[in-house]
Design goal:
single chain, five-stranded mixed β-sheet, 13% strand, alpha/beta
């Protein structure tokens, strides 16, 4: 009887090893088989879908979070710049680079870059604006065809697929900018705008916090100060205006914002609303879903599974903020993005087979076609309502 059990154990072990070898062979074939030259390249014509340039920022310990966010918003037509600021280590930046190179489609299209020499990001300081403008300048050089510049942080996550986003934005004028803004400064006037602050991150290599001067300044009369959400979606033409600065306004506002608390909530808002060429192309929304405490704190609440339905019904493109690998992110992946673990969100461009061991986006076809999901409709309604407000002038720089 003992010999029979030993024989059965040996037979079972051989069968199990054979199964593992078979699966390994499939996986190796899928991941190492050479791809044909691109069956399509990104088209940038009046009839092709729009594309986006994403600037994704994070700090110490955010490499994995940034990579997960990247997978959730990846599309071969887009451009991506990943920035772990000076608070993170070179090892984290190298790790992020290795993670990017591990994805075959990202290697093939070469549309993801990691900032090698990091910028400082002082909390509440103007070094954040300097980093964003540098990121925008790099993305402008990386590709001449993308249409909108989107800022995200490691604490953000999408609520729609990139096929959904591009589908809805196909009917949006490419000169429009989505910036939550107001000229009603309220309490921010005395707490944020009038105080004179200095950001050590502008001139010191070591980390430090902003410090306040002893005196305050008056509101300027050469321009009007606007404030709002720090998260923006900017047209390529407006970003070029800020980066290239053929008019003196962007430089003037940059110098003024250098000494403002949370300049990220002032700079783009004030530039666009004081510019005759761009102020009428401003949609008053940051396209984000956030939940605030009452009274609000410095940052919105961390979103949990209890907020999932609110996110779904919001019609927003993105939500923030989330704890690392929170269960609600898995819900978004499973129910909205249809994203497998460690994989990109499948779109119309993905042509590979779908199974637990096969990534549908390991093979691709025409990257210029879209297949929006049912969740695109809510976002489309949001955009349509915003465009109605734009026509009525109620959402513009007032």
């Amino acid at each position: 009887m003992g010999a029979e059990k030993k024989w059965l154990f040996t037979l079972f072990s051989l069968a199990f090893l054979s199964l593992l070898f078979f699966l390994s062979s499939i996986l190796n074939f899928s991941s190492t088989s050479p791809h044909k030259p691109f069956s399509s390249t990104p088209l940038h014509t009046p009839t092709s879908p729009p594309s986006f340039a994403y600037y994704i920022s994070g700090s110490h310990g955010d490499a994995d979070r940034i990579f997960r966010l990247l997978l959730s918003i990846y599309h071969p037509r887009n451009m991506y710049l990943l920035h772990i600021n000076a608070g993170g280590s070179d090892d984290e930046r190298r790790k992020l680079g290795v993670l990017v190179k591990s994805v075959s489609v990202m290697r093939a299209f070469g549309n993801v870059e990691v900032v090698g020499k990091p910028d400082p990001n002082t909390y509440m300081g103007s070094s954040n604006i300097a980093a964003i403008l540098r990121g925008g300048a790099i993305l402008l050089k990386m590709d001449k065809g993308w249409d909108w510049f989107v800022t995200l942080s490691a604490l953000d996550y999408p609520l729609i697929t990139q096929d959904d986003l591009s589908h809805v934005f196909s009917s949006v004028r490419k000169d429009l900018n989505f910036i939550d803004h107001t000229s009603d400064l309220g309490w921010k006037e005395g707490a944020r705008v009038l105080p004179v602050v200095v950001d050590p991150g502008i001139y010191l290599a070591r980390r430090s916090q902003i410090f306040h001067a002893t005196e305050k300044r008056k509101l300027p009369d050469a321009f009007k100060v606007f404030t709002g959400s720090p998260w923006v979606t900017l047209s390529r033409s407006f970003l070029e205006f800020c980066v290239l600065g053929w008019d003196n306004l962007p430089r003037t506002l940059l110098m003024y914002s250098t000494n403002v608390v949370l300049a990220q909530e002032v700079y783009f808002h004030s530039v666009i609303c004081n510019s005759p060429d761009f102020k009428n192309n401003t949609v008053n929304s940051d396209l984000r879903y956030m939940v605030w405490d009452d009274p609000p704190k410095m940052d919105p609440r961390f979103l949990k599974t209890s907020e999932y339905e609110g996110m779904v019904q919001s019609g927003a493109a993105f939500a923030r903020q989330f704890q690392t690998d929170d269960a609600v992110l898995d819900m978004v992946d499973d129910r909205i993005l249809n994203r497998g673990k460690h994989r990109a969100v499948p779109g119309a461009w993905c042509t590979g087979g779908r199974s637990w061991f096969s990534d549908p986006c390991s093979q691709w076809g025409d990257i210029n076609v879209l297949k929006p999901s049912r969740h695109a409709k809510k976002f489309e309604n949001t955009i349509n309502n915003l465009l109605v407000d734009l026509k009525s002038q109620s959402s513009q720089c007032l």
